[in-house]
Design goal:
Length: 210
């Protein structure tokens, strides 16, 4: 499948948003549908939500799965206070649906699948110590992981590891696949099976500066 730079994916996203498209509900629905096609309720799901819109996608997926009868837990290490507007709305929807947030993680072997919504395509620095500890624990559990956009700990453009990345069984790419998941290396190895949900967004032709 074709892959694109983070800049081109972001450009397509901005164009869609400027046209009034709401992409986070579509991304969350796509992730919830993906899990529902593979696990039947009341399977246990753990959503890991980071401090940006990737976390909002995970929150939206968690809310949808909760409504379908799944046993969904949420762990949000950075808390909700600094979330960007769309992700903050997703947090409120989660709370309004009766969802809570775990302060500490239980035994990860209890989960049928873990949603990696910690960091998306914008990560460009090594994972901090607490995030790395979390990634290591998820990896050690062996639980199946669905990464949203890019496995956390991967540079989406280069495919380089920014620490020890989460190892996904599946990566669900929104709008398009980032080029860091295509070339052989850490990105491809961490991503597992890559699938794309374009959310009805088209990548525009490259400009002279791309």
């Amino acid at each position: 499948m074709p892959s694109f730079s983070v800049a081109r994916i972001r450009h397509a996203e901005r164009l869609a948003l400027s046209q009034g498209r709401e992409l986070m509900p579509l991304a969350g629905l796509a992730a919830a549908d993906f899990i529902a096609a593979r696990f039947a309720p009341p399977a246990r799901v753990l959503a890991l939500a980071g401090p940006g819109n990737n976390g909002g996608d995970a929150l939206t997926a968690a809310t949808g799965l909760l409504a379908r009868g799944y046993a969904v837990d949420l762990h949000m290490p950075a808390g909700p206070d600094a979330l960007p507007p769309d992700a903050a709305r997703a947090w409120r929807n989660w709370r309004d649906a009766g969802g809570g947030s775990l302060d500490a993680l239980p035994d990860l072997l209890d989960y049928a699948v873990i949603i990696d919504g910690l960091f998306g395509i914008g990560l460009n620095r090594p994972l901090g110590a607490s995030w790395q500890t979390l990634a290591d624990r998820v990896n050690a559990s062996g639980a199946p992981v669905l990464a949203l956009d890019v496995p956390s700990g991967i540079d989406a453009d280069s495919g380089l590891a920014l620490g020890r990345p989460l190892r996904a069984r599946w990566t669900l790419c929104f709008i398009a696949m980032a080029r860091g998941l295509e070339a052989p290396g850490a990105g491809r190895e961490a991503a597992g099976e890559c699938l794309v949900r374009d959310l009805g967004v088209t990548i525009p032709p490259p400009s002279a500066t791309d």
